[in-house]
Amino acid sequence: MTGAGTGAGAGAGAGAGADGPRHDLPGVDTFTRPYWDAAAQGRLLIRRCAACGRAHHYPREFCPHCWSEDVAWEQASGRATLYTWSVVHRNDLPPFGGRTPYVAAVVDLAEGPRMMTEVVECEERGLRVGMALEAHFRQAGDVTVPVFRPGREP
């Protein structure tokens, strides 16, 4: 995993920008603060359940597999494979319109969970199901968000 770049990231939430509300900023609260603080340091966190042993993402206070509340933060490797993607050519929500085309994607993290994200630094013709990806981080407003770029094949 590497440090932050520039641009806006994927996520949900809203903030005020020069062109009005932004639709790419995540909602940060007390529970998710460790996730966003780690991202600012170039680290990807997931949650793992002590009861069933399974990892999950997006961060939740309970395990979505067995419903246990015995879950903790864990640093992920940052390695993933591309599960599916869509190249977005038009998006009128700020700030996405200025970034089209971009690759909205779902990746399989090496630890097991699937994650919605964006693939960067890869032309559309270079995308393929199962390709190796690695986490990369970029600034989006006051937060740093994880995106993925092509990585080394195992």
Helix content: under 10%
Indicate the low-confidence ranges by residue numbers.
1-17
Shape: globular
**Total helical segments:** 1
**Mean pLDDT across every amino acid position:** 88
State the distance separating the first and last CA atoms: 15 Å
What structural class results from the helix and strand content?
mainly beta
Strand content: 35-45%
The helix/strand series, from N terminus to C terminus, equals: EEEHEEEEEEEE
Radius of gyration: 16 Å
Largest sheet, in brief, is: 6 strands, mixed
**What's the β-strand tally?**
11
At a glance:
This protein is mainly beta and about 150 residues long.
Keywords, separated by commas or semicolons:
11 strands, 1 helix, globular, 6-stranded mixed sheet, 154 residues, mainly beta, disordered N terminus, 40% strand, 3-stranded antiparallel sheet
Would you spell out the secondary-structure blueprint of this structure?
Elements: E1 4-5, E2 15-17, E3 20-22, H1 33-40, E4 45-49, E5 55-56, E6 71-75, E7 79-88, E8 102-109, E9 114-119, E10 132-140, E11 143-150
Parallel strand pairs: 1-10
Antiparallel strand pairs: 2-3, 4-5, 4-6, 7-8, 7-10, 8-9, 10-11
Describe the structure.
- The protein has 154 residues and is mainly β.
- The protein is 5% helix and 40% strand.
- The protein is built from 1 helix and 11 strands.
- The strands form 3 sheets. Strands 1, 7, 8, 9, 10 and 11 form a 6-stranded mixed β-sheet that branches. A 3-stranded antiparallel β-sheet has the order 5-4-6. A two-stranded antiparallel ribbon has the order 2-3.
- β4 and β5 form a beta hairpin.
- It is globular, with a radius of gyration of 16 Å.
- It starts with a strand and ends with a strand.
- The N terminus is likely disordered.
